[in-house]
Design goal:
The complex is a heterodimer of chains A (158) and B (543). In chain A, 37% of the residues are buried. Chain A folds into 2 domains: 56 residues; 86 residues, Glutaredoxin (3-Layer(aba) Sandwich), CATH 3.40.30.10. A 4-stranded mixed beta sheet of chain A has the order 2-1-3-4, covered by helices on one side. In chain A, strand 3 and strand 4 form a beta hairpin. With 158 residues, chain A is an alpha+beta fold. In chain A, helix 1 packs antiparallel against helix 2 and helix 6 packs parallel to helix 7. Chain B is α/β, with parallel strands linked by helices. Chain B folds into 4 domains: 95 residues, Glutaredoxin (3-Layer(aba) Sandwich), CATH 3.40.30.10; 211 residues, Rossmann fold (3-Layer(aba) Sandwich), CATH 3.40.50; 84 residues, Roll (Ubiquitin-like (UB roll)), CATH 3.10.20.600; 107 residues, NADH-ubiquinone oxidoreductase 51kDa subunit, iron-sulphur binding domain (de novo design (two linked rop proteins), Up-down Bundle). Chain B is 40% helix and 15% strand. Chain B is built from 21 helices and 16 strands. In chain B, the strands form 4 sheets. Chain B has a 5-stranded mixed beta sheet. In chain B, strands 2-1-3-4 form a 4-stranded mixed beta sheet, with helices on one face. In chain B, strands 10-9-8-11 form a 4-stranded parallel beta sheet, sandwiched between helices. Chain B is globular and about 75 Å long. Classes of the chains: A alpha+beta (158), B alpha/beta (543). Chains A and B meet through helix 2, helix 4 and helix 5 of A and helix 1, strand 12, strand 16 and helix 16 of B. The complex binds flavin mononucleotide. The site of flavin mononucleotide (FMN) has 24 residues of chain B, from helix 7, strand 11 and helix 19.
Chain lengths: 158, 543
Amino acid sequence: MPNLNKVDTIVKSYENMRTPLIYILKDVQNEFGHLSEEVLTQVAKTTRIPLSEIYGVATFYSLFTVKSKGKHIIRCCNNAPCHVNGSNEVLDKIKTYLGIEVGETTADGEFTLEYTSCLGVCAVAPVLMVNEEIYGNLTPEKAVAILKDYKMKGSVHA
Amino acid sequence: MHRFHILIAMDSHTIAQGARAVKDALVQDLTLAGLAQEVRVVETGTLGIYGKGVVMVIFPDAVYYAGVKVEDVAEIISEHIMKGRIVERLHYRDIPAQEVRVDEKTPRIGKQVRVVLKNAGSIDPESIEEYIAEDGYEALGRALTEMTPEQVMEEVKKSGLQGRGGAFFPTGVKWGFAAREKSDEKFIICNADEGEPGTFKDRLILEGDPHSIIEGMALAGYAVGAQQGYVYIRGEYRMSIQHMQMAIDQARKNGLLGKKIFGSKFNFDIEIREGAGAYICGEETALIESIEGKRGEPRNKPPFPPSVGLWGKPTIVNNVETLANIAQIILKGASWFRGLGTQNSPGTKVFTLVGNINNPGLIEVPMGITLREIVYDIGHGIPGGKGFLLAQLGGTTGGILTSEHLDLPLAVDSLRAAGAGMGSGALLVVDDRQCVVDLVQNFVEFFVHESCGLCTMCREGNGRLLELLQRLTTGKGVAGDIALMENLASTMMRGAFCGLGQAAPIPILGCLRYFRDEFIQHTQGVCRAGRCKMQASDDTAAA
Ligand SMILES: Cc1cc2nc3c(=O)[nH]c(=O)nc-3n(C[C@H](O)[C@H](O)[C@H](O)COP(=O)(O)O)c2cc1C
């Protein structure tokens, strides 16, 4: 049962900002991991913004999620500059290694696999991001080595 | 006094290759060796060398090292710093020739001319003092004490500067629209949403020279009568956000933002607003919706933002690179700016060179340079001895250029005549191992993902295009598919609500025009490049 008082504290901290909804949702997601219906209902109550509008915003932006995710989030880039440098091969290898498709989470809850929008590091394409960390100049083998590293070190990886 | 300065490139590319760990090791080892007082390690923005690992340059010798790993640090210190011997193994010689000056005011490196990027990589972006030492905030000071707002605007108008966000609208003219509005509030927004695949120029300006943006925004505010600015930065650009916030704090502390700047009556402040992941928020009205805490769906135009913008008030939205030009135009004058580039496209342009290219990265060149010069002289050609197939200029919605365009001068008017545009400045080079149909499918996957869903043309049109392309790339296409795609694409161009849906068909139609044979081959189950996994054709699947 999430502690919904935290929502009120977050909303209050943005008292002086004009139209702070996106900032509120970011902080709420950081606090609770994802934007569940329960949490969003509380945001609606405290901000007096209709829940439908809040849900609309929460599902519009890719950095928000209304579903819970794995411990590590892998975001692969497959935009054109990465694509012509072999990002498909990297992605295929990751899919087989983890046994999941893009948008899914592994059964042990370790990894969620997603696409990312362009990270703007195309000079070292193909790239992927694990949590906040970016990795470039990938090959399928390198990508798997990186994921193995995360598995071994758990969440303490820098 | 420091005997040596080590500038280590700390940009998003080098960080992805371990620059932080190398820097930490440097500082630690120098301290252990008792050299901390003699050698200063400075984090700087991009040094203009990409994809070559961690890069640094040691002054006064001006020796570049690339591909530096943590294990190499001890050797660099014991050899180079202590014994004055260059570590040949890591020595990077492929740097552009010594910097020379085109004229008194403009440095040039090889074919590159640095206006917007003049500080990136040569100053510490976290230090306002270093920016000021390079004439930083002098333009603002001069404007506020010696010029009227009209004079500032006139200078920008005379310079002929066109917006670098993609539409190339004359900046001074746009400012004029907002200046003549009467309102209790006006806003300046810096568009740092940069979501266009292959584009990272704004990112490296934000990371490497954030004060140039602040100064440009303050000058814009003075010219149009705005007191508040917002920098809308993509949520994914953590380092840009950090550097920008640090720069804003320093500027406030030094009285360069806030009340009565330079003792004048002008008040101006800036806040950052972070995006939350949506490509469409780069479109100026969608961006405004997003700052207002809503879904980033574009608004109807007119009214345009200079009349009705953020919270209904007159608002100027300018791109990062546009704003980075402003202080220098005020400082050096409109005629200096007009002396760069071509008559109808004055100034320089920052491009990001990506794809199948030996020397990818960020370059700044005068408008009017040719594609060949960029790809072969600056970019060192295509890796692995492959041939040039096509280039896409301006991002995923950009036009397609082929070998017949290699000598086309890249300027706004000449590109328009060729059915292309400068767009975001991303130049994607594609070699002849790639399959054009597969590439187009990749573009359309992007559009399907990034369409905001507001209008049917873009939402459904891209979805249907993707289905057709998926048929072609799996060997299930039929002859009629090509005409259907063409028809659909031109309908979208005319019927979509905003620039995204209207521009999405450009690269599709471009590829169909120049590489029609490849599409036809795909309807016959043949992929020249062998990238598409053709399944045995099944006549009933086509129905
Ligand atoms: C789909 C779409 C995406 C855009 N993305 C960006 C962007 O990331 N950055 C940007 O500066 N302009 C972008 N623009 C252009 C802006 O709408 C606007 O024209 C620009 O910010 C104006 O600045 P300028 O006059 O300095 O060029 C985009 C436009 C469209 C239609």
